[in-house]
Amino acid sequence: MNLFDRVIRQGQLLFGVAITAFGAEHLVCARFGQAVVPVIPWVPGNHPWFAYLVGIGLLVAGITIEAGKRPRLASAAIAVFLFGCFLVLWIPQLIAAPLDLGIRTRAFETLTICAGALMLAGSHAKEAPGLWRYSASLLVAIGRYFFAVSAVIFGVDHFFILPFIASLIPHWIPFHMFWAWFTGAAFVAAGLSTATGWKAQWGAAWLGIMFFLWFVVLHAPRVLSAPRSHDPNEWSSAFIALGICGSSWICASAMSRRRELRVLVAKAA
Question: What pLDDT score was predicted for residue 6?
């Protein structure tokens, strides 16, 4: 296994860390009667018990995925939960306000992390007995197309708010508008690559690298800065970036295994 493959196969670990962080944040926020993690922003302020319940579930699932203990079951549970959130809570908002970029971003962030969970479950299901094994390819395929659609939508949306995207880039990095255009194009290219299967491993892998750089260069300094260190939204944004990085590398790894399988079948023929 080369260095590139070793890197992208860390996607499961990063994904697990992000899910664990979401769970921890829910437990902290529930103490104040609120939950601000964009994955489930609908938790009522007067029902912190629900935030506690979801927080515990996410925390356990995240640690399970990180440890590699039954990651198939944990990731499948996360996928079902997030897809339910997308259908029940985000689809009505998207229908009511289809041009609202904020709603669309939050909705497809949820779907992207759901896609990562589906592909992770499918990747581990290939070695499992019974129904799990038969569902493996379907889980990976559904996750792959969820991931691709979300990436294209993120990319298109970038072009509507280029000045805002450019303003988020740290001042020490030159050519802000160029990078704003570049990231939008990279999203669209990665989405199309993943959907069509052409260079899909590379498209998803480089998208993950882009999100990892965002986590390190953009989000981590904002989280660590004094005025924002107590702002849960900054923590949420940082770990969403890490979660999508993990999802991207899970996708790249799944596409790599798919390619290896095709090669083996061709050699056997």
Answer: 73
